[in-house]
Design a protein that fits this description.
The structure holds two protein chains of two kinds. By secondary structure, chain A is of the alpha+beta class. Chain A contains two helices and ten strands.
């Protein structure tokens, strides 16, 4: 959904609220009570999402927290990545996710999530927008590794309920894991981010891990410290209101 | 969501005293690896006392045959002989890296637990496994991931030499045509002869020599190696 649709939806709810109050005021009383301007705001449902980077030395790109409809997952293993996901997985830029079908809200984290770091991101949704949640970020010292979850059912959470997920690293399948100089955008290289070529198997799959020069990949700019194992991130989702 | 749902279902299932009703299952399996194939998959519904394998226990001869050579016939016969039901080889051959087989239908009848195995190829004796997952009695969609296990029956020498028979060292084949040759072999000093989580393969980048015939750029994986969705109807 886009911004205009959202505005429209809130206006429609306000009209319903006014109409309800108007009817309530229609009584037989000859001296109606003073008119109090109604406070019109939809009752929002609030969530907090706390992510922790579990890796040794893989900074994560700004976290994208995405509220979307239940039929619009951001990826599916075994299937080709969308261009928006490819851009994120190769460069860390998550802004294209806002334009994906079915996306109601995109909330972006404060910045790079360092290894060992944690961050809490808040999300406030109109009831009509409460459906599925996705959280996604790039492991920036890789060619196209990302992690997160997609299609978490927010409706399953009552107020004060918490679910914690431990998630694995995925390979977008859009860029060969060459680990070569100039191909990795993170601080290990400072190389290229997104390019339109798809020179891997073009299916989202479990990431095989990085090899590194220390483990026999001669041209790799990565070292043993950049290796990782699953899980790579925890995601704690709480409904706060 | 799914872990939570599964946990909830297990709790409910253990509390319920009702006998399990026949369940129609629709199953999909996704190979999550970058460059490894799954040999013919065996999906088995069986009673609560049966297992295709158990971590920490010795592999049965039937499991060894599957893990070293991909042959599921003996496992299949063992399940059906004990009154279980199976979906054997639903991908009709190999399941390619990052590929999915779906719409596998299995009527579990009065069988209460589900197991899955397939060899991970090319490896010496790695297999993807699900051990006796309690089939939820509550209808719904359940998703979970599977790890790669080491059958503990063959040294992981990483030499591709056609060795798929039980007791024959070596790896049967690299189906992707991406294996090497003339490797001197990895010295596997592990003495663990029980089924255990696979440590992963090493590989190297030398396709005509080196210690391993596997390619470290293609054949490595991190667990989990498969995602399974079971729809209980």
């Amino acid at each position: 959904m886009n911004y205009l649709t959202d505005i429209f939806k809130r206006s429609a709810m306000a009209l319903v609220a006014i109409a309800t109050i108007g009817l309530a005021g229609c009584s037989d009383n000859d001296s109606p009570a003073p008119v109090v301007p109604p406070v019109v705001s939809p009752v929002m449902q609030d969530y907090s999402v706390t992510v922790t980077n579990l890796t040794a030395n893989q900074p994560m790109s700004p976290i994208a927290v995405v509220a979307h409809t239940s039929d619009s997952k951001l990826w599916s293993t075994g299937m080709a990545a969308s261009v928006a996901l490819e851009v994120l997985a190769e460069s860390g830029d998550n802004s294209d996710l806002a334009d994906e079908n079915g996306v109601n809200e995109l909330v972006i984290g404060a910045g790079i999530l360092v290894p060992g770091g944690a961050e809490t991101i808040s999300l406030s949704l109109a009831p009509a927008d409460v459906a599925d949640l996705s959280v996604v970020t790039m492991l920036v010292n890789t060619n196209d590794a990302f992690t997160g979850t997609t299609g978490f059912d927010l409706a399953a959470l009552a107020v004060d309920d918490t679910t914690t997920l431990r998630v694995i690293a995925y390979d977008a399948g859009t860029e060969a894991n060459s680990e070569a100089k100039g191909t990795i955008p993170g601080p290990a290289d400072g190389g290229e981010g997104f390019n339109t070529d798809r020179d891997d198997n073009d299916k989202v799959h479990g990431h095989p891990g990085v090899i590194s020069a220390d483990d026999g990949l001669a041209d790799s700019v990565l070292s043993a410290a950049h290796r990782f194992d699953n899980p790579v991130m925890t995601i704690k989702i709480t409904r706060t209101q | 969501m799914n872990v939570n749902q599964v946990t909830k279902a297990l709790l409910l299932g253990s509390l319920a005293s009702l006998p399990a009703a026949a369940a129609e299952l629709e199953i999909s399996v996704t190979n999550l690896t970058h460059g490894n194939y799954f040999t013919p998959i065996l999906i088995a519904a069986h009673d609560m006392d049966s297992h295709l394998f158990q971590a920490g226990e010795m592999a049965t001869p039937a499991l060894q045959k599957m893990a070293e050579g991909g042959d599921i016939a003996d496992l299949d016969a063992a399940v059906t002989g004990a009154g279980g039901v199976t979906a054997a080889n639903p991908a009709m051959g190999l399941l390619a890296p990052s590929a999915r087989v779906e719409s596998i239908m299995l009527d579990s009848g009065d069988m209460t637990h589900l197991s899955i195995t397939a060899m991970v190829l090319p490896t010496n004796d790695a297999f993807v496994g699900l051990d006796a997952w309690k089939i939820p009695t509550e209808a719904g969609r359940y998703t979970f991931t599977l790890n790669a296990y080491d059958a503990g029956t063959e040294a992981n020498d990483e030499i591709i030499n056609g060795g798929g028979m039980v007791g024959t060292p070596g790896i049967p084949a690299a189906p992707g045509g991406d294996g090497g040759m003339n490797a001197t072999g990895i010295m596997d000093s592990s003495s663990n002869d029980k089924v255990h989580i696979h440590p992963g393969v090493l590989g190297d980048t030398d396709l005509s020599a080196g210690a391993s015939d596997l390619d470290s750029r293609i054949h490595r994986w991190l667990n989990p190696v498969a995602r399974v969705t079971v729809v209980v109807k």
